[in-house]
Design a protein that fits this description.
Order of helices and strands: HEHEHHEHEHEHEHEH
Radius of gyration: 27 Å
Structural class: alpha/beta
Number of domains: 2
CATH topology of the largest domain: TIM Barrel
Number of helices: 9
CATH class of the largest domain: Alpha Beta
Distance between the termini: 82 Å
Bound molecules: zinc ion
Helix content: 40-55%
Oligomer: single chain
Shape: elongated
Length: 229
């Protein structure tokens, strides 16, 4: 082989090896950057968030939701109506046994007004009694339907109102992607998410949101842990 040919082979050989090492280096760098970005996306481990479900229990969707929560070891808060609790005491019992917090959402989903204060109060008391009879626990939290509340009721009944900070309006859309997007774009530390366990789309969206937020490092807790810790 002539010296010239040897020179050409050596030249291309070194060139190819350099190219190989350059690509390898870029790949490592790129992966490293992605890893750093992933780390930045994570929030501090154990950051709290609460997911709440109103208007139930529903005979089918609530059970489906409870199965999903159990699989993920998530504790939620359920604000049930007395009417529905009376119809499905077995589901209330299951919620309680599986560590969820049960709150009051009036007996018949009554909105407080100037003219029905007494009836409203009676509905809260009646619903507390229904829940306590099933769980053996005192009911301390109330989610007032439509968010209408009167502060003087807190002293009268020794109950705390629990509103919400993230409302995806899941009751007016069956579009899982939309419900999920709304929550994910707003949610953060110590937020209280409002949902309704009476729809298939809510159950699917809630479980998907939980998976994503758990992946980010959030811990799901019942509302008392957000309000009093
Ligand atoms: Zn409601």
């Amino acid at each position: 082989m002539s010296r010239k040919r040897k020179g050409i082979i050596l030249f291309f050989g070194i060139g190819l090896m350099s190219l190989f090492f350059f690509c390898f280096y870029v790949k490592i760098e790129k992966n490293g950057t992605i890893e750093v970005m992933k780390q930045m996306d994570k929030i501090q481990e154990g950051t709290k968030i609460a997911i709440t479900f109103d208007d139930g229990p529903h005979p089918y969707y609530t059970e489906q939701l409870l199965d999903g929560l159990k699989e993920r070891d998530v504790k939620a808060t359920f604000f049930v109506t007395g009417e529905h609790a009376q119809l499905h005491p077995d589901i209330i019992e299951r919620m309680n046994e599986e560590g969820h917090l049960i709150g009051n959402h009036t007996y018949s989903h009554l909105q407080l007004s100037k003219s029905n204060r007494q009836e409203y109060k009676e509905q809260l008391i009646k619903t507390n009694e229904i829940i306590t009879e099933i769980t053996g626990k005192e009911v301390l939290f109330v989610r007032p339907p439509y968010g209408t509340w009167d502060k003087t009721l807190e002293k009268d009944l020794n109950m705390f109102p629990v509103l919400w900070t993230v409302d995806p309006l899941d009751w007016c859309s069956d579009n899982v992607a939309c419900i999920k997007k709304k929550i994910m774009s707003e949610v953060g530390e110590n937020d209280i998410i409002l949902m309704h366990d009476s729809y298939a789309s809510t159950v699917t969206a809630a479980l998907q949101v939980i998976d994503e937020l758990q992946e980010q490092g959030y811990e799901f807790v019942t509302v008392d842990e957000i309000l009093f810790d």
